[in-house]
Amino acid sequence: LWQDDSYMDLCFPGYSAAQNEVTGPKTTSGPERGSLTVQCNYTSGWKTHKKYWCRGAVWSSCKTLVKTTGSEQEVKEDRVSIRDDQENLTFMVTMEDLRRDDADIYWCAIERVGSDHGFPVDVTIDPGKSVLMWTAGRPQTSAPGGSFLFPVSCSHRSLFSSTSFLILVFLEVPLLLGMLSAVLWVNRPQRCPGRRRSPPDEN
User: Subcellular location, in the record's words (predicted)?
Assistant: First the structure.
């Protein structure tokens, strides 16, 4: 389908097959909370032109997220970076800390006088499985790769722990007091009745 020019014109308004001075992968994906890198290729006539990464299914109104300066220097904006390798006629775009709502149509694009060149890339995000982790006595969720997410609410656990503690106190305190009383009773001083001394014999 991607090779059908009429399909491209229908799905990506403003796109023209004549713009294939720049190309890239048709689709790519990355893990939630992870990163992905897209390699875009261009022809030799565009070495010193600015390259950029654009978001939105409509080519004519897509939003530029990051753009090169016309050199090979890396440029980073928020969670997206771009670097132009003019020797190999490629530029690399890296998206970090991926979120589910990052899934969209993006464009490998080259700035020029008149209409810019662009190639659509369908980016999908693979949902990650949260893992419950304990840090300093507090539960936190972590996605694959060790990135911590938001702390898990555990108010119900705290309430349960407090109730258990109170029950434990009320049960153990009387028991300890009873044992202490028994020990004191057993070890109390014993008084032996003394023999009554008979009065001395006056005779």
Answer: Cell membrane
Q: Which residue has the higher pLDDT, 31 or 15?
A: 31
How far is C-alpha 63 from the chain's CA centre? 25
Report the distance separating Cα 148 and Cα 113, nearest Å. 45
Longest pairwise C-alpha distance within the chain = 149
Give one DSSP letter per residue of 81-132, joined into a string.
EEEEETTTTEEEEEE-S--GGG-EEEEEEE--SSSPEEEEEEEEEEPPPPEE
Assigned token pair, 101: 């709502």
Lowest mean pLDDT among 19-23, 98-102, 112-116: 19-23
Query: Model-level pTM?
Result: 0.58
Q: Going by C-beta distance under 8 Å and a sequence separation of 6 or more, which residues neighbour residue 27? A: 121, 122, 123, 124
**Integer Cα distance of 107 and 81 in angstroms:** 14
Q: Residue 104: is it exposed, middle or buried by C-beta count within 10 angstroms (0-12/13-18/19+)?
A: middle
